[in-house]
Design goal:
Elements: H1 12-25, H2 38-45, H3 49-61, E1 65-68, E2 72-75, H4 90-96, E3 101-111, H5 116-120, E4 128-138, E5 141-152, H6 160-165, H7 168-175, E6 182-191, H8 194-200, E7 207-216, E8 222-231
């Protein structure tokens, strides 16, 4: 059984939600099946009922469970009418493919204004904006460039290794008082601009996969946005939607 890491920067309720979501998507918890009670989950994972309740609320927001008054909480059938790109952590993904992952921090800046695409997504610069750029490598070959923008309080120190090695959602949780509860990604094909082409070691105008990501809080407000460019000749993203195991 997966355990909750109490020393992780990721809140326990978010860890539990990830564990239960995985069980639902793998068919270990089937559509229509009742979830263990709050008390049972609390005992099993050594968490308070308040923490378990926050976890269930998050799963309900994602459409994975529903509560029937007086009966309990049940697994919902996931919708299959939209694509979801499930991105593994880059380190794990490259390791599984037999490659040596690497990451290089290219730039860090504090900005007063957001880029246009972030404003269109509804993000508001009501405080400082932290921008950082990373280059991801596999066997020392450039694979992707990441541009990330997040709300930031200047009183909080930034450690270079946090920006270089931690996932975007973790960095947001560490340096804001706001918890990201939902992420949305939009995939398009584009031509590499001069800056990104140089980092990726490809010719300007070469095709790249552009992934635009937004992290949302529980009020559905974007608190962090990113643009990622993946080399079209070295990377592919797959959206695999199918019924839950045991369901047809």
């Amino acid at each position: 059984m997966e355990r909750i890491n109490k020393n992780s920067f990721t809140p326990p309720f978010y860890q539990l939600a990830t564990i239960l979501e995985k069980k639902i998507l793998l068919g270990e918890l089937k559509a229509g099946e009742s979830l263990p009670s709050e008390n049972e989950l609390s005992r099993e994972y050594e968490l308070s009922r308040t923490t378990v309740r926050k976890c269930l609320s998050l799963l309900a927001e994602r459409g994975l469970i529903s509560t029937q008054q007086g009966k309990g909480t049940f697994v919902s059938r996931p919708l299959l009418d939209r694509a979801e790109f499930l991105m593994e952590e880059f380190h794990a993904h490259m390791t599984n493919r037999g490659k040596e992952p690497g990451c290089r921090l290219i730039n860090v800046q504090f900005l007063k204004q957001l880029p246009e695409f972030a404003v269109k997504l509804g993000m508001k610069a009501n405080q400082g904006i932290l921008y950082y750029c990373r280059l991801l490598l596999a066997d020392n070959e450039p694979i992707a460039v990441e541009h990330k923008y997040m709300l930031y309080s200047k009183g909080r120190p930034i450690l270079e290794n946090e920006l270089q090695y931690k996932a975007f959602s973790e960095v947001v949780m560490i340096h804001t008082d706001i918890l990201p509860v939902r992420s949305q990604a939009i995939l398009t094909a584009e031509s590499a601009g001069e800056f990104d082409a140089k980092l990726l070691n490809v010719a300007q105008g070469e095709p790249v996969l552009k992934l635009q990501q937004a992290l949302y809080d529980d009020d559905n407000q974007p608190i962090g946005v990113g643009v990622f460019y993946y080399r079209g000749d070295r990377y592919s993203l797959v959206s695999d939607k199918q019924p839950l195991k045991g369901e047809r």
